[in-house]
TrEMBL record:
The keyword Disulfide bond does not apply. Residues 210-322 form the Fe2OG dioxygenase domain. This is Oxoglutarate/iron-dependent dioxygenase. One of its GO terms (molecular function) is dioxygenase activity. Its cofactor is L-ascorbate. It holds the Pfam family DIOX_N. Keywords: Dioxygenase, Iron, Metal-binding, Oxidoreductase.
Length: 371
């Protein structure tokens, strides 16, 4: 008989969604008319659509970086990194048909029977670099996120093709390989602007994107979007994130400082802005590592995801992160200019362990390195 989760059954619910790998999808398949209590967010974490505005900046055309308008394109990238920390790009070099295949592959993976996905649960997975799960840190969270995910860390092509899930390995690998050139190109612009000489920037950029991870997120249609979150408020710990979102919408970014757009206020401090889906575009966001390296000049934006009651949503982020043993701290060129470091030097591995050891809580992850 299908389990019914009453409010007192928190333990059974945990076992069902987390330990046994049914996830939110398994819960939804039971035919719920209201989310279990464990998914109800405290009022301050709930996402009120009417409190948010929509990000109206046009996507940045990355092909301009290789033409006569390269200065203008570089300026747009730097400005976005310094203000919202989020921007969208087109002509990014990732084939648009591939983006469609990725979304389909994500749906195919999550639509499978729970036992097919459960083979990738932590501890059961045939490869330590592939992990299927639900919510970010269910052991630590007061309320779970309404999200299932599969996470695939890249080591080499052969491992990816052997161990990543059948439904997504080829498209995910191609996505990663075609995106990484774009990531490096954007980093070249951002790192050059910090005053790092070209001869040093190649090695620095390679170290900053040494580890790469493709995730697929699945947010099933939810009976109570007003009570839940798909992903709670957080910033990304790595260098740059590339995100493919489908057409449903629901990604919100917090404006850290007033954003002026030709003397109009495009966003006010503390306001949430939705990043609207744009067909064929990719979303780029700055991670904590770049905020630390730039001594706070580039913003690792706090963001979160709302659920919807009408359709399931998928998104496919690529996280680029440093070598575990890499020392991360403000670059000397920036400290010299600013007169003081705002962050201490940390071993990236320690930063990462602290990030994954806690539930999402806005930009609190950065406190680990703050002076
Ligand atoms: O699904 C999204 O739009 C964002 C996902 C996200 O923030 C994450 O996976 O960390």
């Amino acid at each position: 008989m299908a389990p019914i989760f009453n409010d007192g059954d928190s333990h059974d619910l945990f076992n069902f969604v987390v330990r046994d790998g049914y996830g939110v999808k398994g819960l939804v398949d039971l035919g719920l008319s209201r989310v279990p209590e464990r998914y109800v967010q405290p009022p301050k974490e709930r996402i009120e659509k009417s409190d948010a505005t929509s990000h109206q900046e046009p996507p940045i055309d990355l092909s301009k970086l290789d033409g006569p308008d390269c200065k203008e394109a570089a300026e747009e990238i730097v400005r976005a990194a310094e203000t919202l920390g989020f921007f969208q790009v087109v002509n990014h070099g990732v084939p648009v048909e591939l983006l469609e295949s990725l979304k389909n592959a994500a749906f195919c993976f999550f639509e499978q029977a729970p036992e097919k996905k459960a083979v990738f649960l932590k501890g059961a997975s045939p490869c330590p670099y592939v992990k299927y799960g639900t919510s970010f840190a269910p052991e630590k969270e007061i309320a779970f996120e309404w999200k299932d995910y599969i996470s695939m860390v890249y080591t080499n092509d052969a491992d990816a093709l052997s161990y990543w899930p059948q439904h997504c390995k080829e498209v995910a690998l191609e996505y990663l390989k075609t995106s990484i050139n774009m990531v490096k190109r954007i980093l070249e612009v951002l790192i050059a602007r910090l005053g790092v000489p070209v001869e040093d920037s190649v090695a620095l950029i390679d170290a900053l994107v040494d580890l790469k991870m493709v995730n697929m997120n699945f947010y099933p249609a939810c009976p109570n979007p007003e009570l839940t979150v798909g992903v709670g408020r957080h910033s990304d710990m790595g260098t740059l994130t590339v995100l493919l979102q489908d057409g449903i919408g629901g990604l919100y970014v917090k404006v850290e400082e007033d954003v002026d757009d030709d003397n109009n206020i495009a966003g006010s401090k503390g306001q949430w802005m939705e990043i609207p889906p744009i067909s064929g575009a990719l979303v780029i966001n700055i991670g904590d590592t770049l905020q630390i390296l730039s001594n706070g000049r580039y913003k690792s934006a706090e963001h979160r995801v709302r659920t919807t009651s009408t359709q399931s949503r998928v998104s496919v982020p690529i996280f680029t992160i440093s070598k575990p043993k890499q020392m991360i701290g403000p670059l000397p060129q920036v400290v010299e200019k600013d007169g003081l470091p705002r962050y201490r030097e940390v071993v990236f591995e320690d930063y990462m362990n602290n990030f994954f050891g806690n539930a999402h809580e806005g930009k609190k992850s950065l406190d680990f390195a703050k002076i």
